[in-house]
Amino acid sequence: MMDWTDHHCRYFLRLISKHTLLYTEMVNAKAIVLGKALHLLKYNQSEHPLALQLGGNEPDILAQAASIGAEFGYDEVNLNVGCPSDRVQSGFFGACLMQKPELVHDCIAAMQREVSIPVTVKCRIGIDREESYDFLRHFIVTVAESGCTTFIVHARNAWLDGLSPKENRNIPPLRYDIVYQLKQEFPEFEIIINGGIKTYDDCDLHLQQVDGVMIGREAYHNPYILSEMDQRYFSAKQNFDSRINIVEKMLPYIKQQREQDIFLKHITRHILGLFHCEPGARSWRRHLSENAVKHDAGVEVVEQALEFVHLQQKEED
Q1: 9, exposed or middle or buried, with CB in 10 Å at 0-12, 13-18, 19+?
Q2: Does residue 123 have an active-site annotation?
Q3: Residue 134: what are its φ and ψ, rounded to 5°?
Q4: What is the pLDDT of residue 317?
Q5: Which of 42, 159, 253, 292 has a CA between 20 and 30 Å from the CA of residue 48?
Q6: What Å distances lie between residue 210 and 19, 80, 250, 281, CA to CA?
Q7: Does residue 68 sit in helix, strand or coil?
Q8: Rounded to two decimals, what is the model's pTM?
Q9: Which of 15, 1, 21, 11 is nearest to 42 (CA)?
Q10: d(Cα 103, Cα 124) in Å, to the nearest integer?
Q11: Nearest to 123 by CA among 69, 70, 84
Q12: Do 102 and 142 touch, CB atoms closer than 8 A?
């Protein structure tokens, strides 16, 4: 979710679900430690529970970045060993690290020595055309010797050559059974499944086999899928807000951000999918897309887009 789940996005998602664990976009550990880019760790306190996802391959640097993240108050640190992008591969981290389970072990061990919060790993079920369960098993067993017990597993291979990051999210086939097998063999590990999950029925099915579900693209393009999560899976008693109420709760935040000279487009790009498949969805997206890019665009653009939704919903009624 690089360039997607920034702090504006997470603030918005937290208005929909109070209990779902949110993850940052992957942050290069070197940028934090050597580049002193602490602005990358910025977040709103309302975003908790919140995990910091790091990318890197040097145990000492990752340990320092994890320590800084813990000082910032993150609830978890996650090492991404699943991203297949060329940019990430060029730095030899992300999915290509699955070829070096001993190095991943050393990275996790170093991070755990520096922090008391959970340190977790996100990976794929394999890389390139290596489709054997034994490959994944060896990786998990080796990394688990560091003391790591939580693994978030994207149920596709990552093809490091020949596919773009976008194609890597669709072309390698989903093989959920491999993740299920992992949980069956290692019941002591917390296994969280990821990849192609779009509905509550999907979640219910997976939760019969594994400990948790991670939803990525669907939660971004259709964020209201998170609306029932608190009631269904966290036994929360509060009623979930309507889409319109969520927008109204976003307005003070948007106004505050504009007062700090944050361009409106940087916020509204995350809320385009809120009315997915609802009356007024197209007008909502069009108005925001065409007007939020203007230099002086403010909260009134969102209010106007919401009016279009109100009008079309009244027509439907």
Answers
A1: buried
A2: no
A3: -60, -35
A4: 62
A5: 292
A6: 19, 20, 34, 35
A7: helix
A8: 0.93
A9: 11
A10: 16
A11: 84
A12: yes
**Angle formed at CA 250 by CA 248 and CA 251, multiple of 5 degrees:** 70
**Token output for 183:** 């949980």
Q: Do the beta carbons of residue 8 and residue 47 sit within 8 Å?
A: no
Say which range, 73-77, 85-89, 273-277, has the weakest mean pLDDT: 85-89
Structure tokens at 59: 């145990």
- What does each C-alpha distance from 260 to 208, 257, 263, 298 come to in angstroms? 46, 5, 9, 12
- Express each pLDDT in 83-130 by its tens digit: 876 666 555 677 889 999 999 999 999 999 999 999 999 999 999 887
Place of tokens 């309302």: 46
Residue 245, pLDDT score = 95
Q: Is the predicted pLDDT of residue 134 greater than 60, yes or no?
A: yes
**Identity of residue 263:** F
Q: CA 214: distance to chain centroid?
A: 8
Amino acid found at 35: G
Q: Looking at 9, 83, 96, 123, which residue is catalytic?
A: 83
Please check whether residue 79 is in contact with residue 62, taking contact to mean a CB–CB distance below 8 angstroms: yes
Tell me how far apart the alpha carbons of residues 11 and 280 are, in angstroms, rounded to a whole number: 23
Query: In this structure, are residues 180 and 210 in contact, taking their beta carbons and an 8 Å threshold?
Result: yes
Give the model's pLDDT for residue 284. 97
